[in-house]
Amino acid sequence: MGLRTGTFHENYAEEMATFNSRLRWGLVAALIVVLFLCPFFLSDRMLTILTTMGIAVVSVHGLNILTGYCGQISMGHSGFMAVGGYTSAILCAELGWPFWAALPCGALAAGIAGLLFGLPSLKIKGFYLIMATIAAQFIIIWIIIQLRSITGGTDGLLVPKPTICGISLTSKANYYYLVMFFVVLATITAHNIVRTRAGRAFIAIRDNEVAAEVMGVSLWSYKLQAFFIGCIYAGAAGSLLVHYVRFASIEQFPFMDSVWYLGMLIVGGMGSTAGAIFGVIALKLLDELVTVSGPILAAAVAPQAAASLALISHGLIIIIFLIFEPRGLYHRWEMIRAYFRLWPYSHEASE
Amino acid sequence: MYKHRWMLAACTIILMVMTTFLPVSAQAEKVLYVGGTQSLTGPFAEDSAAVLAGIEDYVAYVNETKKLAPWRSEKFPADVKLEVLWRDDELKPPKALSIYEELKAKGMLVGRISGSPIALALKDRLWEDQMGATSMASGSYLLTPPQSIFTYYPIYTDSCAAIADWFKANWKESRKPRVAYLTADNAMGRSLEIPEMKAYLENIGYEFVGTQYVPLVPTSPPTTQLTWLKQKGVDLALGVMINPGSQPTVKEMVRLGMGPHLEYHMTFGVALPGHAAVFAEAMGELGDGYVCAGSFRSLDDIATPGIKFCSDLQDKYRKGKRISHIMYEAGVLEAMIQVEALRLAMQKVPFDKLTPRAVLEEGFYQIKNLDTGDISSTPLTYGKGDIEGVDEIRIDQVQKGKSVKVGSSPVRHIYTKK
Fold this sequence. Notes:
Order of helices and strands of chain A: HHHHHHHEEEHHHHEHHHHHH
CATH class of the largest domain in chain B: Alpha Beta
Strand order of the largest sheet of chain B: 7-6-8-9-10-11-12
Structural class of chain A: mainly alpha
Distance between the termini of chain A: 26 Å
Helix content of chain A: over 70%
Shape of chain B: globular
Distance between the termini of chain B: 74 Å
Oligomer: heterodimer
Strand content of chain B: 15-25%
Number of helices of chain A: 17
C-alpha cells in the first residue's frame, strides 16, 4: 500500500479552495486564536503596536491590489487614507453618525476619490502616473486645509470615542479586536479579489497592457476598478486610524507615509497578499527597533546619531531589498515552503 | 581550557541578558523617570535636541547634588535616583501613541509633549491615565478640558496679544494700525486664528486685515504672501512660526523692502517657537526689528541666575560640546517642572504608592510659584484648570543684530472657550 505524500487536488473545488489542506486550516485557526488571545498576555504597548500594524496592513492590501496586482503605481495612498479618515471623522464629529456607519462611508469616499484621481491612469503610466498620484496626495491635503469649516483645516478635528452596539471601543483591547477583524476581512477579500475575473484582468494589465487589451480586457474599466478597490482599503484604514487616535489631522497623513507604504510592498513582495503583511511587519518592527535603539545610540555615539535614524534605516532597507531581493520577503517565504513541501524528499524534488 | 573560556563568556552574556528582564522592583535603587517623547526627526529636531540635552544635564545635576537649583534650599530625596527616558516620535501621532504606552509601561509617572500634533493625539489618553505632562507646544487647544498638559511659556494667542499691546503702545499715527496674521500653515500656526484673538485686536484699536500662511519650513520664499501684506498696507504681522520658517520669511521681507526700518514700515512679531536669540544669531542685523514674545533670555545673559545655572550645567556636563540653542533652557525648565512634581508627590505619597494620578494631583497641581531663576518670564504656578504656568510675557526685539528685551505684558488669557 502506497503512502500519500504532499497535497493532491482531485477536483476543481479543491484546487481553488483558499485553504486547500487541513494543515493550512489548522494554521489559520491557530493564528486567529493567537490574535484573539494577544490582549490577555501582551502589554498595552504591544497592543498599540499591533493595532497600528493592523491599520497599515489594511492600507497596504489596498495598495497591493492597485500596484502589486494591477501595476498602477500610487504615491498618494496616504492622501486617500486622509479622505477616508476625514469623511468618517466629519460624519461622527459634526453629524453625530455612529462609528459603524461612518467607517464604510469613509471607505466609499476614498474609493470615489480614487476613481477621480485614477482617471489619468487611462492616459499615462509609469513615471508620469507616479507624478499624478503624488499630485493627488498634495491636492487632497490642500482641499482638507481649505475646507476649514468642515475639516478644521490644519487645526484638525476631534473625533468622538467610537462605539459599536453600545460597546465603547476606547480600551486598547477592544480597538485591537476591531482592527484585527478588519485585517482578517481585508486579507480574505484581497486574497479572493485577485482570484476573480477582475483580479485576473488586473494581473493581465500589469504584465502587458497591450496584450490584455487585445484579449478583450477593458483597460478603462479595470484600471478604475483597481483604483476604486485599492482606495476603499485606504479609506477604511484612514478611518480606523483617526478613530484610534481620536483626532483627525493632516499630520497623520504625510506624503512620506505614501512612500513607506510602497516601501512595505517592496520589502514584503508586490503581488502577494502575504507579502503585504510581511512588508508591514518588517518595516514596523524596524521602526520600533530604531525607536528603542535611538537613545542607546545617542548615548554611545552622539545625540545627532539618533535623529532621522528611522528615515535612514527605512531608506536603506528598501535599497537593500531592491538590489538583493526585489521579489521581497514573500519570495523567501515561498522558497522555504518549497523546501519543506515534499520534505524529506524536497532536495530530490527540486533537482 | 579554550572550550571553558567560551562557556564562561556564554554564561556571562546570558546573565547580562537575563538581568535586563528583571523587574524594576527587584533592583535595589529607587528610580524615577523624567523626559518623555521627543521629536528629533522633522521640523522640531533642532529644538528637541536642545531640550533633551537640558533635561539630561538637569537630571545629572539633581542626581549628583540632590539639589533642585542653586537658589533653592529644598532637597530631592537622597535615596531616589532620576533617569531620563526618551524616544524619538518623529512628530508622528501614531508613533507617539506606542512610545507613550512603552514609557508608561516602564513606570514613567510624568509625560512630555513634543509638538502640537502629539499634544492633540495624547491629550485624551493622558487625562484617562491621569498623567501630568510638560509641553513644548503651547496652543490654545491646551486650554480646553481635559487638562493635564502644562506649559512653561504662554499660549501662542497670549504671546501675540502681548506683541499687539506693545506695538499699539508705541503707535504714533492717528489712524488705526492694520494687523494681519502671517503664520505657519499647521496646527501650531493656525491656533492663532480664534475669534477671541481677532476680537481682542479690534478691541484694542486695530483694523484686522486677514491671514496669510507660510509652510512650517518654507521651500521657497513667501513672496506672494508678503506682497499681499504690502498691498493691504499692513503695519503689524503676527504669527506663530519656528525659526526655520521665520528666518527665510524675514530674508524675503528685507528683499522686498519690508521692515520697521525699511522703506515699507512693517513689524513682524511671532510667539515663542521663533526664538529671538536664535534668530539674532543666525540673521545678524539683517533681522533687525523682528519681535518675539514669550521667549527665554539669551544664553549669554549670565547675570540671570537661571541662565548662569544653565551655563554651569553645560560647563560641568557638556565640556567641549556646548549647546548654543536657546531651547536648552526649555529642557532645564521642563526637567525642573517634572522633578518638582515628583518631589512634591513624594512628600504626600510613599514612593512605592506613587502613581501618575498621585503625581498629577499631589505634584503638578501643587506647584506654586516655582522659582526657575528667571528662565521663565515669571515663577510657575499650576493647578486644576491652570495649566499656563507664567503670568507675564517677555517681549524681545532684534536690534543691531542682538536680542533685546523691549517690554513685558501680563498674560491676557485671550482664549476663553472652556
